[in-house]
């Protein structure tokens, strides 16, 4: 055998998506990317993601809690949807789980204050952010206010062209030498100074007893539009997020740039794949979880018992006894994907990447056999038999993928929800597209990876 043939036969070489797909698939790729950009531009909170999913599911004939083709929503921040397969549920399920929360700024319980005739909203950051990312850029307000009379008032300000936007002011470089420039990057912007500028005109009238007239003007405006008072902030979920639409990035339009791609890119692709799979062999279950970015705490997260309730209901409605034995027997036959993004190699920061093992943008869905950090702490590690089965099916269906880790061993790491689901006994692996600028207000994904993630999920749900 010639050396060239030997090399081709025995060595591994990653494949670029655009070098492997034909014009028909490139057209489909662009269509999916356009749909994704529209989704990403309007869906910026967990509640908005659930609302989007519910609308799409009902349009496709899914009914709440229907046994054969149904969905379940909990607290408006968790969504599950399923369709029964040809094989009985005792043969196991095909599960894809992603998370729909994203790093952001939450308003504090008592957020509104006035200082030097300017009105601000105080925030508390949610999830892992670099605080300097959030200053000096246009911001929008998304969320809901729960009134004592039971009404839920939805608020979105800063997304329409006619809307005002908000911002967090930065300090000019002329005055920033001691307070910012001489400090570590992580200390230059402190959390308590992530105050959002919201108003600067005093309320009309000259009553000297009223001291905070700009704050009162803000309250007057928000009361006229939404009927809420200052006390209503206590029972509100109001988030500060980047304003504006997702965009194509690059002169060749090869990337999608926008907020919240970790992990709504996996939510979007898994839901789209799920809706397109007809008559699956195994029961398909898609889960959209909350609170992953803060350790999966709370009753809408992967640590909650809500997943067990869904499985027990499926068991019961299948005519089986809803016993722990049946539950765990089904789990041991279940195959799952923890659909989450990973860090793509950024050539500007090669000192933290392992070039041989980390994911490259444009080379397909990234499969992380294990997560965690250091000595694989806090990690799930997929069994190789399951990984080989999955990759064989992807090969047969021409899915372009790469198997990767995330960064050099001692540089850090990350976790996903897979370890919580692995505890039930199912086979599960992490897979999703690599991103640049992850956890920033403007994350970057490659269209080729977006498309291959959708294709990989669709293949998995079929087999």
UniProtKB/TrEMBL annotation:
A GO MF term: zinc ion binding
UniProt-listed InterPro entries: Peptidase_M18, Peptidase_M18_dom2
EC number(s) per entry: 3.4.11.-
One Gene Ontology cellular component: cytoplasm
Gene Ontology terms describing biological process: proteolysis
Domain of life: Bacteria
Keyword Zinc listed: yes
Keyword Metal-binding appears in the UniProt entry: yes
Reported cofactor(s): Zn(2+)
Pfam family name, one: Peptidase_M18
Family assignment from sequence similarity: Belongs to the peptidase M18 family.
Protein name stated in the entry: M18 family aminopeptidase
Species this protein is from: Thermodesulfobacterium geofontis (strain OPF15)
């Amino acid at each position: 055998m010639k050396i060239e043939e030997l090399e081709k036969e025995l060595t591994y070489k990653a494949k670029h998506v655009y070098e492997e797909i034909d014009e028909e698939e490139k057209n489909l790729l662009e269509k999916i990317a356009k749909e994704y950009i529209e989704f990403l531009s309007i869906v910026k909170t967990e509640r908005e993601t659930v609302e989007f999913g519910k609308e799409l599911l009902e349009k496709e004939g899914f009914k709440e809690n229907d046994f054969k083709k149904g969905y379940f929503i909990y607290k408006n921040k968790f969504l599950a949807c399923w369709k029964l397969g040809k094989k009985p549920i005792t043969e196991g399920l095909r599960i894809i789980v992603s998370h729909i929360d994203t790093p952001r700024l939450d308003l504090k319980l008592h957020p509104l204050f006035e200082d030097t005739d300017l009105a601000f909203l105080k925030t508390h950051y949610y999830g892992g952010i670099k605080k300097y990312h959030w200053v000096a850029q246009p911001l929008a307000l998304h969320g809901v206010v729960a009134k004592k009379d039971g009404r839920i008032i939805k608020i979105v300000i800063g997304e329409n062209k006619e809307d005002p936007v908000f911002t967090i002011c930065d300090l000019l470089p002329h005055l920033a030498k001691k307070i910012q420039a001489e400090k570590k990057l992580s200390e230059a912007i402190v959390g308590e100074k992530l105050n959002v500028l919201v108003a600067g005109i005093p309320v009309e009238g000259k009553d000297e007893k009223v001291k905070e007239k700009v704050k009162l003007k803000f309250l007057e405006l928000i009361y006229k539009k939404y009927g809420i008072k200052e006390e209503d902030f206590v029972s509100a979920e109001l988030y500060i997020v980047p304003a504006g639409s997702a965009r194509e990035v690059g002169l060749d339009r090869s990337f999608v740039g926008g907020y919240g791609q970790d992990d709504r890119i996996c939510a979007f692709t898994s839901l789209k794949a799920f809706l397109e799979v007809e008559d699956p062999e195994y029961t398909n279950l898609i889960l959209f979880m909350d609170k992953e970015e803060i350790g999966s705490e709370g009753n809408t997260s992967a640590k909650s018992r809500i997943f067990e309730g869904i499985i027990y209901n499926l068991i019961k409605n299948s005519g089986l006894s809803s016993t722990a034995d049946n539950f765990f027997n089904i789990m041991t036959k279940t195959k799952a994907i923890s659909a989450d993004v990973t860090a793509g190699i950024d050539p500007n920061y090669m000192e933290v990447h392992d070039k041989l093992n980390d994911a490259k943008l444009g080379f397909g869905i990234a499969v992380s056999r294990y997560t965690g950090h250091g000595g694989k702490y806090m990690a799930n590690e997929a069994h190789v038999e399951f990984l080989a089965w999955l990759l064989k099916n992807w090969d047969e269906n021409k899915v372009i993928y790469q198997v990767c880790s995330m960064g050099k061993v001692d540089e850090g790491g990350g976790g996903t929800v897979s370890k919580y689901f692995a505890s039930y006994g199912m086979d599960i692996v992490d897979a999703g597209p690599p991103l640049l600028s992850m956890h920033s207000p403007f994350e970057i994904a490659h269209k080729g990876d977006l498309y291959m993630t959708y294709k990989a999920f669709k293949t998995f749900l079929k087999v």
